[in-house]
Design goal:
With about 190 residues, the chain is an alpha/beta fold. It is built from five helices and six strands; from the N terminus they run βαβαβαβαββα. The longest helix is centred in the last third of the chain and has 31 residues, at about 160-190. Strand 4, helix 4 and strand 5 form a beta-alpha-beta unit. Strands 1, 2, 3, 4, 5 and 6 form a six-stranded parallel sheet that branches.
């Protein structure tokens, strides 16, 4: 089973993006193991802190290194990604020459009550993580509109059509991770 580090761009306890991530985790049971790095304890990015890196930063980099893949679950704030997610991305990409994101298979999803379901933030985030050499899955795109009752309190997707779409997404993500982790193993074996 592949381990996926899930980066939820909201620290709110009742975050709809965290609830969405938990629903995806439930659909992925038996295929993928989701871990949730602690983004709330990261200090604001400051290059001077590399002289004595905070424990939370080292944990973040260890979580990324231990994962087979990364999944970004982003809200949309002012047509972009939230600062907590940007901050985690900054820390993971540094110091120079030690980009933790490079060569990790990944995906970007998000949810909002609005009809475009974080599409603008996701577009912005895709350009950022591609630049960091995340091997980004292009399709299917998931611009999820949260509606009351669509995900219940135990993280079950209640609508059969929505559940089928998200199950298809999880299957594609699992295959994407499998393909790219096999490629990485093949490359190492060939060296």
């Amino acid at each position: 089973m592949h381990k996926v580090a899930v980066f939820v761009g909201s620290l709110r306890a009742d975050s709809i993006n965290l609830k969405f991530a938990r629903a995806l985790e439930k659909l992925a049971a038996g295929k993928l193991e989701f871990i949730y790095p602690d983004l709330g304890s990261l200090p604001l990015y400051n290059d001077d802190l590399w002289a004595s890196p905070p424990a939370s930063v080292l944990r973040l980099k260890d979580d990324i290194a231990a994962a087979d893949a990364v999944l970004f679950v982003t809200p949309e704030y002012n047509r972009t990604i939230p600062s907590v997610l940007s901050n985690a991305i900054f820390w993971g990409s540094r110091p120079w020459g030690r980009n933790s994101w490079a060569d990790k298979p990944g995906s970007v999803v998000g949810t909002s009550p609005g009809g475009i379901g974080t599409a603008v933030a996701q577009s912005h985030l895709r350009s950022v993580v591609t630049n960091l050499e995340v091997i980004l899955m292009g399709q299917p795109e998931v611009y999820f509109q949260t509606k009351p009752g669509l995900i219940d309190d135990d993280f079950t997707v209640t609508d059969p059509d929505t559940r089928a779409f998200l199950e298809g997404y999880i299957t594609r993500l699992t295959n994407w991770i499998q393909r790219h982790t096999q490629d990485a193993v093949s490359s190492v074996a060939a060296e």
